[in-house]
Amino acid sequence: MRISNTRKYLLLLSIHGLIRGHELELGRDADTGGQTKYVVDLARALATQEGVERVDLVTRMVRDRSLSTDYAAPVEMLSGKARIIRIDAGPAEYIPKELLWDHLDGLLDNLVSWLQDQPRKPDVVHSHYADAGYVGVRLSNLLAVPLVYTGHSLGRDKRKRLLASGLSPETIERSYHIDRRIDAEEETLANADLVVTSTHNEIEEQYSLYNYYDKERMAVIPPGTDLELFHPVQQAEHPRFAKQLARFFRDPRKPLILALSRPDERKNILSLIDAYGESAQLQRAANLLIIAGVREHIHDLDTGAQAVLTNILLQIDSHDLYGKVAIPKTHRADEVPEIYRYVARGGGVFINPALTEPFGLTLLEAAASGLPVVATENGGPVDIVANCRNGLLVDPLDKDAISAALLALLCDHDAWLEAARNGIDGVRRHYSWQAHAATYLRKIDELRRGFRPNTGKRPAARPQRYRDRAIFTDLDQNLIGDQLGLQRFVELVRASHQRISFGIATGRRVDSALALIRKHGIPVPDVLISSMGTRIHYGTALTEDEYWANHIDHNWNPRKIARLLADLPGIKRQPRQEQTPFKLSYYFDPRLAPSLEEIVLLLRTNEFTANVIGSFGQFLDILPSRASKGQALRYVAQCLDIPLEQILAVGGSGSDEDMMRGNTLAVVVANRHHEELSQLVDQDKIFFASQPYALGILEAIEHYDFFNARISPAPA
Fold first, then answer.
1. What is the DSSP letter of 587?
2. Number of domains in the chain
3. N or C end of the chain, less CB within 10 A?
């Protein structure tokens, strides 16, 4: 089938949570909030556009007996041109996003493998949230396509708000792995070609906190809402949900204050209960309806949700609000539109008191239903209320302000009516999914016109009939160091050469690597990855891969980077012969030099995208963002047509780390620098050998039964 290149193939990444095309379990936990609905609606809206050929929404596959089998389906159709694609990553069961970080490299490798079977590669990769940003950076680098990013919520802003609520930095890090998240966000912002935000407030108050803040690469494209589902009261409705409420209220005729969110401390429901409980006037004016997710038993929820719901119930008890507050255990997703209309018909108000709200889809849903709103002044609601003029903004930590805003709408019928009408009109005018999709595609067209593709010819795959696996290892500290072990390894490689491809991945230049290979009697490798992954040569003829050189020459500014680093203490340029067009090499004195993290920060602050690699405790290399040993190895694996699961990656220092993450089999050999890889000790498919140098490689070959088994290893 002939594929048109004028119509776009869009790949969306949203990894965590529970994503499906029907009956979204919104509010089930902290990972099933507005982002889940946003990405599904976005995929559907983009697929309606004439200029779109296909939209794939990639998420994590979940096989969990406690959940619907929907989440285990590899493919789910959303429409004729839109699909949900589920990719394996980590354990089969459902886990919170904070525990996904160590499994993202595996998801990336599985996704790349899936993409190889597709008719064409995507035109754009669009990552949603920090975890998808981590994957998206690496995928866009490998595919050489533009990267679009939407943060939804950002770690630096979240940390600021959590600190303001009284949590300690230690508690925040322990609960949310916030440092890892922020680092992924910084890296994504450094590499993204376009950042899509929902509001100007996001840019000014949240993205501006980051070192790689570039307002010129950011576009405000507000999401839409489904106006067929969310609409004003059109006729007398008798929602089934209303029957659940009768048992809660002493006087069910009162208007309702509706709060609808997942049970998350960031949603700040406790401040709302305090505001309501401390205001006798507010209690006389209205009842309070809190819809905080779905639960059978509180003790079945995750610890965070358990704590929030327990505290909510304790707070209700503390203020003795029985007969005035409802907190139902369950509701269906298809009941939510009816709930908004039910509250609007009774003259109620919707409230979002979150500590911060990146956008606020529930505010749009409420507005479209004719329900006035009171919302946090932190984040997206600022733009929504400004555009729709349908309510009031408040400081979410000011209980008196919350009470006053609610009373202003509940007790003034004219103000209530004006806000209700404005909300209905404003949503239709400013927040349509069709308008969002059309603007989005215009931005993508602009992006693609400014994006320089690789015009070189990619080398044809070099599969060899009987070679179904490969070994890739560094020279220094891996092969070289124990002559007897090296001799045994060389004998094994020569004896098995018809079965395996042998590769070397080194930081050395080509000439230096070849001299060392000859000196120690090492066979010329089938693939030589040199200069820290910036050059690739094949076979005894050392045929260079020119496509790779063109591929990594993307946003690479070596002269400017060199000038920036010139005066830093503790680093010194290595001799000229150690420099290459795609590698800046330095001697590194850890006693005097800034840390690697500080050097990365310096580069990002000055808007340079590059890989910073330390090795052997004394060397520092700066590479293009698309270059590293790991990225080169994955590229070569495609050329050799060898699955990553059948490649043994041998590491001995920090420069080898990204070769070893993900789906490769990996071994860390014992040498004086192996501690640089100690953070990998709990990773799947990474074996820490007890033997040094080549003896450690032989130990790993035996551990994995590398030659005789169908490779499905587990760490020792």
1. E
2. 4
3. N
173 Cβ neighbours under 8 A, 6+ residues apart: 179
User: Per-residue pLDDT tens for 165-196?
Assistant: 788 889 888 888 899 999 999 999 999 999 99
Measured distance CA(187)–CA(140) in Å, rounded: 13
Q: Which of 490, 499, 492 is nearest to 470 (CA)?
A: 499
* β strands within 129-279, DSSP E: 147-150, 194-197, 218-220, 256-261
Answer whether residue 3 is part of any domain: no
| Burial of 177 from C-beta contacts in 10 A (0-12 / 13-18 / 19+) | middle
Its sign, for the CA torsion 134, 136, 141, 146, is: negative
Q: What is the predicted pLDDT for the residue at 5? A: 57
Q: What is the CATH number of the domain that holds 387?
A: 3.40.50.2000
Q: Are strands 8-13 and 325-326 parallel, antiparallel or unpaired?
A: unpaired
Strands (E), 422-463: none
Q: How far apart are alpha carbons 339 and 354 in whole angstroms? A: 20
Residues composing the chain: 716
Same domain, 59 and 154: yes
Residue 229 lies in a domain: no
Residue written as token pair 């690697």: 596
**Angle, helices 361-368/381-388, rounded to nearest 10 degrees:** 20
Considering the domain architecture, whether residues 156 and 274 belong to the same structural domain is answered as: no
Hey, is 318 helix, strand or coil?
helix
Tell me: do 647 and 565 sit in the same domain. no
Distance CA 602, CA 612 (A): 11
Quick one: how many helices (H) and strands (E) in the chain?
A: 25, 26
CA distances from 483 to 386, 511, 521 (A): 73, 22, 10
- In the DSSP assignment, the letter for residue 90 is S
Q: Cα separation of 59 and 111, whole Å? A: 10
| Mean pLDDT, the chain, whole residue set | 91
DSSP state of 75: E
| Unique residue bearing structure tokens 């940003």 | 133
Can you give the CATH number for the domain in which 645 is found? 3.40.50.1000
Query: CB count, 10 Å around CB of 251?
Result: 9
Range of the domain at 33: 8-224+435-449
Q: Is the pLDDT of residue 715 over 50?
A: no
- Each residue's pLDDT tens digit, 339-366: 999 999 999 999 999 998 878 889 999 9
Which 3 state secondary structure label does DSSP give 204? helix
Quickly list H helices, 319-412. 336-345, 361-368, 381-388, 399-410
Q: What are phi and psi of 431, to 5 degrees?
A: -130, 65
Cβ pair 38, 272 in contact under 8 A: no
d(CA 452, CA 145): 9
Going by their DSSP bridges, the two strands 75-77 and 82-87 should be labelled as: antiparallel
Name every residue whose Cβ is closer than 8 Å to that of residue 650 and which is 6 or more positions away in sequence: 471, 472, 473, 474, 478, 656, 666, 667, 669, 696, 697, 700
Other CB atoms within 10 Å distance of the CB of residue 240: 10
CB 617 within 8 A of CB 590: yes
Asked if residues 361 and 261 have their Cβ atoms less than 8 Å apart, the reply is no
Residue 234 is assigned to a structural domain of this protein? no
Question: In terms of Cα–Cα distance, which of 475, 397, 428, 396 is closest to 650?
Answer: 475
Residue 225 — φ and ψ, nearest 5°? Answer: -135, 155
Tell me: do 155 and 269 sit in the same domain: no
Angle at 474 between CA 471 and CA 479, to 5 degrees: 85
Phi, psi (rounded to 5 degrees) for 493: -65, -45
